[in-house]
Amino acid sequence: METVSLLPLLGRTNQIAALPDLQDLLDQSLALLVEVCAARAGALYLLDETARTLVCHSGDSRPFGSRVALARSQAGKALRQRSLFHRDDFSGGKFHALLSLPLLSGEKAVGVVHLFDFTQPAFDIAQLLADRMAGEIDRSVQLEASRQHNRRLEALIAILGKIGTSLDRDQILRVIIDSAREFLGAEACSLFLTDETTGDLELVIASNLDDSIQVEQMRIPAGKGIIGQVVASGETILVADTAQDKRHYGGVNRTSGFVTRCILAVPICTRTVALGSERGVTHERILGGLEALNKVQGAFTEDDASLLRILANQAGTVLEIAGLYSDVNELFLDVVRSLTAAIDAKDPYTEGHSRRVSEFSVEIARELGLPPEQIYHIRIGSLLHDVGKIGIPDAILAKTRELTEASTTW
Protein backbone atom coordinates (compact mmCIF):
# COMPACT_ATOMS: atom_id res chain seq x y z
CA MET A 1 0.00 0.00 0.00
CA GLU A 2 2.94 2.33 0.67
CA THR A 3 3.87 2.16 -3.01
CA VAL A 4 0.44 3.46 -4.03
CA SER A 5 0.23 7.17 -4.68
CA LEU A 6 -1.29 9.14 -1.85
CA LEU A 7 -2.96 11.59 -4.23
CA PRO A 8 -5.94 9.38 -5.18
CA LEU A 9 -6.58 8.64 -1.51
CA LEU A 10 -6.57 12.33 -0.65
CA GLY A 11 -8.96 12.95 -3.55
CA ARG A 12 -11.37 10.38 -2.17
CA THR A 13 -10.97 11.89 1.29
CA ASN A 14 -11.96 15.30 -0.07
CA GLN A 15 -15.05 13.78 -1.70
CA ILE A 16 -16.04 12.12 1.58
CA ALA A 17 -15.44 15.35 3.49
CA ALA A 18 -17.98 17.12 1.27
CA LEU A 19 -20.81 14.75 2.27
CA PRO A 20 -23.62 16.72 3.97
CA ASP A 21 -24.97 13.85 6.08
CA LEU A 22 -23.05 13.00 9.25
CA GLN A 23 -23.77 9.27 9.14
CA ASP A 24 -22.64 9.03 5.50
CA LEU A 25 -19.47 10.88 6.43
CA LEU A 26 -18.72 8.46 9.27
CA ASP A 27 -19.55 5.32 7.28
CA GLN A 28 -17.44 6.24 4.26
CA SER A 29 -14.54 7.52 6.37
CA LEU A 30 -14.43 4.18 8.16
CA ALA A 31 -14.77 2.24 4.89
CA LEU A 32 -11.77 4.09 3.41
CA LEU A 33 -9.58 3.33 6.43
CA VAL A 34 -10.64 -0.33 6.41
CA GLU A 35 -9.67 -0.48 2.73
CA VAL A 36 -6.30 1.23 3.23
CA CYS A 37 -5.24 -1.27 5.90
CA ALA A 38 -7.07 -4.24 4.33
CA ALA A 39 -8.81 -4.89 7.66
CA ARG A 40 -11.44 -7.54 8.25
CA ALA A 41 -13.69 -5.12 10.14
CA GLY A 42 -13.75 -1.73 11.76
CA ALA A 43 -15.58 0.54 14.17
CA LEU A 44 -15.71 4.31 14.51
CA TYR A 45 -16.34 5.79 17.95
CA LEU A 46 -17.19 9.38 18.82
CA LEU A 47 -16.34 10.87 22.19
CA ASP A 48 -19.15 11.56 24.65
CA GLU A 49 -17.47 14.03 26.98
CA THR A 50 -20.37 14.13 29.45
CA ALA A 51 -20.36 10.38 30.11
CA ARG A 52 -16.60 10.03 29.51
CA THR A 53 -17.20 7.18 27.10
CA LEU A 54 -16.70 6.43 23.42
CA VAL A 55 -19.88 5.62 21.49
CA CYS A 56 -19.90 3.45 18.37
CA HIS A 57 -21.48 5.31 15.44
CA SER A 58 -20.32 3.18 12.52
CA GLY A 59 -18.90 -0.26 11.78
CA ASP A 60 -19.70 -3.95 11.53
CA SER A 61 -17.67 -5.15 14.49
CA ARG A 62 -19.68 -3.48 17.27
CA PRO A 63 -23.41 -2.70 17.71
CA PHE A 64 -24.42 0.87 16.93
CA GLY A 65 -24.54 2.88 20.15
CA SER A 66 -22.38 0.48 22.14
CA ARG A 67 -19.97 2.16 24.53
CA VAL A 68 -16.46 1.69 25.83
CA ALA A 69 -15.10 3.42 28.89
CA LEU A 70 -12.59 6.13 28.17
CA ALA A 71 -10.46 5.25 31.17
CA ARG A 72 -10.28 1.48 30.77
CA SER A 73 -9.98 0.73 27.06
CA GLN A 74 -7.41 0.63 24.31
CA ALA A 75 -9.44 3.21 22.41
CA GLY A 76 -9.21 5.49 25.43
CA LYS A 77 -5.47 4.87 25.66
CA ALA A 78 -4.96 5.89 22.02
CA LEU A 79 -6.98 9.04 22.61
CA ARG A 80 -5.14 9.93 25.82
CA GLN A 81 -1.73 9.34 24.24
CA ARG A 82 -2.86 11.16 21.09
CA SER A 83 -1.15 8.58 18.88
CA LEU A 84 -2.03 5.36 17.09
CA PHE A 85 -1.78 2.16 19.05
CA HIS A 86 -1.76 -1.41 17.75
CA ARG A 87 -1.66 -4.90 19.17
CA ASP A 88 -0.97 -8.13 17.34
CA ASP A 89 -2.04 -10.23 20.35
CA PHE A 90 -5.50 -8.74 20.75
CA SER A 91 -7.87 -11.11 22.58
CA GLY A 92 -11.13 -9.69 21.32
CA GLY A 93 -13.22 -12.72 20.48
CA LYS A 94 -12.99 -13.48 16.76
CA PHE A 95 -10.29 -10.86 16.10
CA HIS A 96 -6.57 -11.18 16.81
CA ALA A 97 -5.04 -7.84 15.85
CA LEU A 98 -6.24 -4.32 16.58
CA LEU A 99 -5.19 -0.88 15.38
CA SER A 100 -6.55 2.20 17.21
CA LEU A 101 -6.38 5.52 15.34
CA PRO A 102 -7.22 8.67 17.35
CA LEU A 103 -9.40 11.26 15.63
CA LEU A 104 -7.96 14.65 16.62
CA SER A 105 -9.14 18.03 15.37
CA GLY A 106 -6.26 20.24 16.45
CA GLU A 107 -6.13 19.89 20.23
CA LYS A 108 -9.68 18.56 20.42
CA ALA A 109 -10.33 14.82 20.80
CA VAL A 110 -13.15 13.75 18.47
CA GLY A 111 -13.11 9.96 18.58
CA VAL A 112 -11.26 6.77 17.72
CA VAL A 113 -11.22 4.33 14.78
CA HIS A 114 -10.65 0.64 15.43
CA LEU A 115 -9.39 -1.60 12.61
CA PHE A 116 -9.36 -5.36 13.20
CA ASP A 117 -7.07 -8.02 11.66
CA PHE A 118 -5.35 -5.69 9.18
CA THR A 119 -3.13 -7.29 6.54
CA GLN A 120 -1.70 -4.05 5.11
CA PRO A 121 0.05 -2.23 7.97
CA ALA A 122 -0.15 1.17 6.27
CA PHE A 123 -0.32 2.88 9.66
CA ASP A 124 1.17 6.24 8.67
CA ILE A 125 -1.16 6.65 5.71
CA ALA A 126 -4.17 5.57 7.77
CA GLN A 127 -3.31 8.10 10.49
CA LEU A 128 -2.79 10.84 7.89
CA LEU A 129 -6.26 10.18 6.44
CA ALA A 130 -7.77 9.97 9.93
CA ASP A 131 -6.25 13.36 10.78
CA ARG A 132 -7.68 14.79 7.56
CA MET A 133 -11.17 13.47 8.37
CA ALA A 134 -11.20 14.37 12.09
CA GLY A 135 -11.78 18.08 11.49
CA GLU A 136 -14.59 17.40 9.01
CA ILE A 137 -16.22 14.93 11.39
CA ASP A 138 -15.98 17.42 14.25
CA ARG A 139 -17.58 20.19 12.19
CA SER A 140 -20.33 17.86 11.01
CA VAL A 141 -20.99 16.70 14.58
CA GLN A 142 -21.25 20.31 15.77
CA LEU A 143 -23.56 21.19 12.89
CA GLU A 144 -25.82 18.23 13.62
CA ALA A 145 -25.85 19.16 17.32
CA SER A 146 -26.88 22.71 16.40
CA ARG A 147 -29.65 21.42 14.14
CA GLN A 148 -30.88 19.07 16.85
CA HIS A 149 -30.83 21.90 19.39
CA ASN A 150 -32.91 24.08 17.07
CA ARG A 151 -35.38 21.26 16.49
CA ARG A 152 -35.68 20.78 20.22
CA LEU A 153 -36.26 24.47 20.83
CA GLU A 154 -39.02 24.47 18.24
CA ALA A 155 -40.55 21.41 19.90
CA LEU A 156 -40.19 23.06 23.31
CA ILE A 157 -41.99 26.21 22.13
CA ALA A 158 -44.84 24.04 20.85
CA ILE A 159 -44.96 22.19 24.17
CA LEU A 160 -45.07 25.41 26.19
CA GLY A 161 -47.88 26.60 23.93
CA LYS A 162 -49.89 23.50 24.82
CA ILE A 163 -49.23 23.96 28.52
CA GLY A 164 -50.29 27.60 28.44
CA THR A 165 -53.71 26.82 26.95
CA SER A 166 -54.98 24.91 29.97
CA LEU A 167 -55.43 25.34 33.72
CA ASP A 168 -56.40 21.72 34.16
CA ARG A 169 -53.74 20.21 36.43
CA ASP A 170 -53.94 16.65 35.16
CA GLN A 171 -53.91 17.74 31.53
CA ILE A 172 -50.86 19.94 32.15
CA LEU A 173 -48.97 17.11 33.84
CA ARG A 174 -49.74 14.67 31.02
CA VAL A 175 -48.51 17.10 28.37
CA ILE A 176 -45.31 17.71 30.35
CA ILE A 177 -44.46 14.08 30.92
CA ASP A 178 -45.23 12.84 27.40
CA SER A 179 -43.42 15.73 25.74
CA ALA A 180 -40.35 15.44 27.96
CA ARG A 181 -39.89 11.77 27.12
CA GLU A 182 -40.37 12.40 23.41
CA PHE A 183 -37.95 15.24 22.86
CA LEU A 184 -35.27 13.82 25.21
CA GLY A 185 -35.44 10.38 23.63
CA ALA A 186 -35.87 8.67 27.02
CA GLU A 187 -37.39 5.30 27.79
CA ALA A 188 -39.52 6.81 30.53
CA CYS A 189 -40.21 10.03 32.40
CA SER A 190 -41.62 10.51 35.88
CA LEU A 191 -43.10 13.54 37.59
CA PHE A 192 -43.07 13.81 41.37
CA LEU A 193 -44.92 16.37 43.49
CA THR A 194 -44.26 16.98 47.15
CA ASP A 195 -46.92 15.89 49.63
CA GLU A 196 -47.15 19.03 51.78
CA THR A 197 -48.36 17.00 54.76
CA THR A 198 -45.61 14.37 54.93
CA GLY A 199 -42.89 15.88 52.74
CA ASP A 200 -42.75 12.62 50.75
CA LEU A 201 -42.56 12.67 46.97
CA GLU A 202 -45.59 11.25 45.24
CA LEU A 203 -45.15 9.84 41.75
CA VAL A 204 -48.32 11.34 40.31
CA ILE A 205 -47.75 10.56 36.65
CA ALA A 206 -45.31 8.61 34.49
CA SER A 207 -44.77 8.00 30.81
CA ASN A 208 -43.33 4.64 29.83
CA LEU A 209 -42.59 2.69 26.68
CA ASP A 210 -44.02 -0.39 28.38
CA ASP A 211 -47.63 0.37 29.33
CA SER A 212 -47.76 -2.78 31.49
CA ILE A 213 -45.49 -1.14 34.06
CA GLN A 214 -47.64 0.63 36.63
CA VAL A 215 -45.61 3.09 38.70
CA GLU A 216 -48.08 5.90 39.33
CA GLN A 217 -49.08 6.70 42.93
CA MET A 218 -45.78 5.34 44.29
CA ARG A 219 -44.01 7.35 46.97
CA ILE A 220 -40.40 8.12 47.85
CA PRO A 221 -39.55 9.23 51.40
CA ALA A 222 -38.48 12.85 51.74
CA GLY A 223 -34.82 13.33 50.84
CA LYS A 224 -34.37 9.79 49.55
CA GLY A 225 -33.14 8.86 46.08
CA ILE A 226 -31.73 11.07 43.37
CA ILE A 227 -35.08 12.80 42.85
CA GLY A 228 -35.25 13.47 46.61
CA GLN A 229 -31.82 15.13 46.46
CA VAL A 230 -32.97 17.26 43.55
CA VAL A 231 -36.10 18.46 45.36
CA ALA A 232 -34.18 19.11 48.58
CA SER A 233 -31.32 21.02 46.96
CA GLY A 234 -32.99 22.57 43.91
CA GLU A 235 -30.06 21.38 41.79
CA THR A 236 -30.01 19.40 38.54
CA ILE A 237 -28.51 15.92 38.87
CA LEU A 238 -27.29 13.83 35.93
CA VAL A 239 -26.22 10.25 36.66
CA ALA A 240 -24.74 8.20 33.81
CA ASP A 241 -24.77 4.91 35.75
CA THR A 242 -27.18 4.50 38.66
CA ALA A 243 -25.49 1.25 39.69
CA GLN A 244 -22.46 3.32 40.70
CA ASP A 245 -24.42 6.01 42.57
CA LYS A 246 -25.40 5.31 46.18
CA ARG A 247 -28.11 7.99 46.09
CA HIS A 248 -30.25 5.92 43.72
CA TYR A 249 -33.46 4.72 45.41
CA GLY A 250 -34.31 1.24 44.20
CA GLY A 251 -37.77 1.01 45.74
CA VAL A 252 -39.57 2.11 42.58
CA ASN A 253 -37.53 -0.32 40.48
CA ARG A 254 -38.39 -3.22 42.79
CA THR A 255 -42.09 -2.41 42.77
CA SER A 256 -42.44 -1.68 39.05
CA GLY A 257 -39.85 -4.01 37.54
CA PHE A 258 -38.45 -1.10 35.54
CA VAL A 259 -34.65 -1.12 35.38
CA THR A 260 -33.16 2.36 35.69
CA ARG A 261 -29.69 2.70 34.18
CA CYS A 262 -29.24 6.46 33.95
CA ILE A 263 -31.16 9.49 35.22
CA LEU A 264 -31.52 13.15 34.44
CA ALA A 265 -33.50 14.90 37.20
CA VAL A 266 -34.48 18.57 37.59
CA PRO A 267 -36.60 20.40 40.18
CA ILE A 268 -40.02 21.83 39.35
CA CYS A 269 -39.94 25.36 40.74
CA THR A 270 -42.50 28.12 40.86
CA ARG A 271 -41.59 31.70 40.15
CA THR A 272 -42.76 34.85 41.87
CA VAL A 273 -46.30 35.61 40.67
CA ALA A 274 -47.80 39.07 41.25
CA LEU A 275 -51.43 38.63 42.33
CA GLY A 276 -52.43 42.26 41.67
CA SER A 277 -54.94 44.48 43.47
CA GLU A 278 -52.47 44.92 46.36
CA ARG A 279 -52.73 41.23 47.24
CA GLY A 280 -48.96 40.77 47.18
CA VAL A 281 -47.07 37.97 45.46
CA THR A 282 -46.58 34.23 45.67
CA HIS A 283 -43.08 33.22 46.74
CA GLU A 284 -40.72 30.90 44.89
CA ARG A 285 -40.76 27.29 46.04
CA ILE A 286 -40.04 23.79 44.80
CA LEU A 287 -43.18 21.82 43.98
CA GLY A 288 -41.47 18.55 43.06
CA GLY A 289 -39.16 17.08 40.47
CA LEU A 290 -39.11 15.81 36.91
CA GLU A 291 -36.84 12.99 35.81
CA ALA A 292 -35.98 11.32 32.51
CA LEU A 293 -34.81 7.72 32.63
CA ASN A 294 -32.58 5.72 30.28
CA LYS A 295 -31.58 7.65 27.18
CA VAL A 296 -32.51 5.47 24.20
CA GLN A 297 -29.42 6.50 22.20
CA GLY A 298 -26.30 7.71 23.94
CA ALA A 299 -26.32 9.45 27.30
CA PHE A 300 -28.08 12.48 28.70
CA THR A 301 -26.18 15.70 28.07
CA GLU A 302 -26.02 19.20 29.52
CA ASP A 303 -28.14 20.30 26.56
CA ASP A 304 -30.78 17.79 27.63
CA ALA A 305 -30.60 19.17 31.16
CA SER A 306 -30.97 22.76 29.97
CA LEU A 307 -34.08 21.98 27.92
CA LEU A 308 -35.66 19.92 30.69
CA ARG A 309 -35.08 22.77 33.18
CA ILE A 310 -36.85 25.20 30.87
CA LEU A 311 -39.83 22.87 30.63
CA ALA A 312 -39.89 22.17 34.37
CA ASN A 313 -39.70 25.87 35.28
CA GLN A 314 -42.52 26.76 32.92
CA ALA A 315 -44.53 23.83 34.24
CA GLY A 316 -43.99 25.02 37.81
CA THR A 317 -45.32 28.46 37.01
CA VAL A 318 -48.37 27.10 35.21
CA LEU A 319 -49.05 24.63 38.02
CA GLU A 320 -48.86 27.48 40.53
CA ILE A 321 -51.34 29.54 38.53
CA ALA A 322 -53.58 26.48 38.08
CA GLY A 323 -53.44 25.93 41.83
CA LEU A 324 -54.42 29.54 42.51
CA TYR A 325 -57.30 29.21 40.05
CA SER A 326 -58.40 25.98 41.69
CA ASP A 327 -58.30 27.60 45.14
CA VAL A 328 -60.36 30.58 43.96
CA ASN A 329 -62.84 28.31 42.20
CA GLU A 330 -63.19 26.11 45.29
CA LEU A 331 -63.72 29.21 47.44
CA PHE A 332 -66.43 30.39 45.04
CA LEU A 333 -68.16 26.98 45.18
CA ASP A 334 -67.98 27.03 48.99
CA VAL A 335 -69.70 30.43 49.03
CA VAL A 336 -72.41 29.14 46.68
CA ARG A 337 -72.92 26.01 48.79
CA SER A 338 -73.17 28.10 51.95
CA LEU A 339 -75.72 30.35 50.29
CA THR A 340 -77.86 27.46 49.08
CA ALA A 341 -77.63 25.80 52.51
CA ALA A 342 -78.98 29.01 54.02
CA ILE A 343 -81.82 29.04 51.46
CA ASP A 344 -82.73 25.42 52.11
CA ALA A 345 -82.63 26.01 55.88
CA LYS A 346 -85.56 28.42 55.56
CA ASP A 347 -87.78 25.47 54.76
CA PRO A 348 -87.13 22.21 56.68
CA TYR A 349 -89.01 20.26 54.02
CA THR A 350 -86.49 21.24 51.34
CA GLU A 351 -83.24 20.75 53.26
CA GLY A 352 -80.57 19.56 50.82
CA HIS A 353 -82.92 20.23 47.90
CA SER A 354 -80.56 22.54 45.98
CA ARG A 355 -77.67 20.10 46.30
CA ARG A 356 -79.80 17.21 45.03
CA VAL A 357 -81.10 19.29 42.11
CA SER A 358 -77.51 20.21 41.21
CA GLU A 359 -76.34 16.59 41.34
CA PHE A 360 -79.25 15.34 39.21
CA SER A 361 -78.78 18.19 36.72
CA VAL A 362 -75.06 17.49 36.33
CA GLU A 363 -75.62 13.77 35.75
CA ILE A 364 -78.28 14.50 33.13
CA ALA A 365 -75.93 16.97 31.41
CA ARG A 366 -73.16 14.37 31.34
CA GLU A 367 -75.52 11.78 29.94
CA LEU A 368 -76.45 14.25 27.19
CA GLY A 369 -72.76 14.65 26.37
CA LEU A 370 -72.61 18.37 27.08
CA PRO A 371 -69.13 19.98 27.15
CA PRO A 372 -67.44 20.53 30.55
CA GLU A 373 -67.90 24.32 30.51
CA GLN A 374 -71.69 23.94 30.10
CA ILE A 375 -71.81 21.30 32.83
CA TYR A 376 -69.99 23.72 35.15
CA HIS A 377 -72.58 26.44 34.53
CA ILE A 378 -75.39 23.93 35.04
CA ARG A 379 -73.87 22.92 38.38
CA ILE A 380 -73.79 26.55 39.59
CA GLY A 381 -77.17 27.50 38.11
CA SER A 382 -78.98 24.55 39.61
CA LEU A 383 -77.46 25.25 43.03
CA LEU A 384 -78.83 28.81 42.83
CA HIS A 385 -82.24 28.06 41.30
CA ASP A 386 -84.02 28.86 44.58
CA VAL A 387 -81.92 31.89 45.48
CA GLY A 388 -85.04 34.11 45.33
CA LYS A 389 -86.31 32.48 48.51
CA ILE A 390 -83.67 34.22 50.61
CA GLY A 391 -85.58 37.52 50.53
CA ILE A 392 -89.02 36.04 51.21
CA PRO A 393 -90.32 35.95 54.82
CA ASP A 394 -90.57 32.55 56.46
CA ALA A 395 -94.26 33.20 57.16
CA ILE A 396 -94.97 33.13 53.45
CA LEU A 397 -92.65 30.23 52.56
CA ALA A 398 -94.10 28.10 55.38
CA LYS A 399 -97.75 29.18 54.92
CA THR A 400 -99.95 26.08 54.62
CA ARG A 401 -103.01 27.87 53.24
CA GLU A 402 -103.57 29.95 50.16
CA LEU A 403 -101.85 33.29 49.89
CA THR A 404 -103.94 36.46 50.36
CA GLU A 405 -103.38 40.03 49.33
CA ALA A 406 -102.40 40.89 52.91
CA SER A 407 -99.92 38.01 53.26
CA THR A 408 -98.01 38.95 50.10
CA THR A 409 -97.44 42.52 51.26
CA TRP A 410 -94.28 42.98 53.30
Could you please describe the fold and organization of this structure?
The chain has 410 residues and is an alpha+beta fold. The strands form 3 sheets. Strands 3-2-1-6-5-4 form a 6-stranded antiparallel beta sheet, with helices on both faces. Strands 9-8-7-14-11-10 form a 6-stranded antiparallel beta sheet, with helices on both faces. The chain has a two-stranded antiparallel ribbon with strand order 12-13. Helix 4 runs antiparallel to helix 5 and helix 5 runs antiparallel to helix 8. The radius of gyration is 33 Å and the shape is elongated. It contains 11 helices and 14 strands. The chain has 3 domains: 140 residues, GAF domain (Beta-Lactamase), CATH 3.30.450; 160 residues, Beta-Lactamase (2-Layer Sandwich); 52 residues.
Architecture blueprint of SSEs:
Layout lengths: L5 H12 L4 H15 L4 E8 L4 E7 L7 E3 L4 H8 L3 E3 L10 E8 L2 E9 L6 H41 L5 H16 L1 E9 L6 E8 L10 E2 L4 H9 L3 E3 L11 H6 L6 E7 L3 E2 L6 E2 L3 E10 L6 H44 L7 H15 L4 H12 L10 H4 L13
Helix pairs in contact: 1-2, 1-4, 2-4, 4-5, 4-8, 5-8, 9-10
Per DSSP, the total helix count is 11
CATH topology of the largest domain: Beta-Lactamase
| Contiguous uncertain segments of 5+ residues | none
The count of DSSP E runs of length 2 or more, i.e. the number of strands, is 14
Which structural category fits the helices and strands? Answer: alpha+beta
Biggest sheet statistics: 6 strands, antiparallel
Shape-level CATH architecture of the largest domain = 2-Layer Sandwich
Strand arrangement in the largest pleated sheet? 3-2-1-6-5-4
Helicity level, as a percent range?
40-55%
